[in-house]
Amino acid sequence: MSSDRGRLFVVSAPSGTGKTTLARELVRLVPNLGLSTSYTTRPIRAGERDGVDYHYVTAERFQAMRDEGAFIEWAEVFGRFYGTSVADTERRLAAGEDLVLVIDVQGAAAVRACGMPSVGIFVLPPSFPVLEARLRSRSRDPEEQIRCRLETARREIARLDGYDYVVVNDEVDRAVDCLRAIVIAERARREAMAGQVAAIVRSFE
Ligand code: 5GP
Fold first, then answer.
1. Cα(156)–Cα(159) distance, integer angstroms
2. Predicted local distance difference test score (pLDDT) of residue 1
3. What pTM did the predictor assign?
């Protein structure tokens, strides 16, 4: 593991874009890159695991954590609360791990505002009709919720100017390649390479 502090990759996308699948595949393929586990008040879904997909907490516990300043950012999304832990994030970054935060646009804006260096990536669906078709084909949500998600998607896409990169999820493998390229490029930035560069430069003296 690197002795340098890790960096934050903030990934946002409208509901139904497939960001969770992309993020999981990304961390599977890239060494020393992990997924942050958020806290949420929403109920656990079939197939999810507490402490892996999310830390599932009561509204009271979430509020207490928020009041203690335990979150770097938090947001209310579709009537439930979600937040990123300061302690978990700090511990992992300090150990040199790069972290992916899959959070909504409000959370991403809060991370930028708090001054923590981060790389913002917005994942777009190929088009509005494709997103609508994907949300309907999941068919787990009632019509009213699908409309709400589509309206939210419109508002979220209007905020993509705040991000550094855009990835279109037209095809999973291609989109994951694009995400990997972003991580690799960010790791090769001169500032990020400073320690290694200094050692190489010294070897020339
Ligand atoms: P879901 O309940 O479908 O897993 O997630 C709903 C939305 O909440 C997604 O847009 C997801 O990115 C967002 N989300 C998940 N964790 C966090 C978090 O810690 N902070 C914020 N701001 N959004 C989150």
1. 5
2. 42
3. 0.94
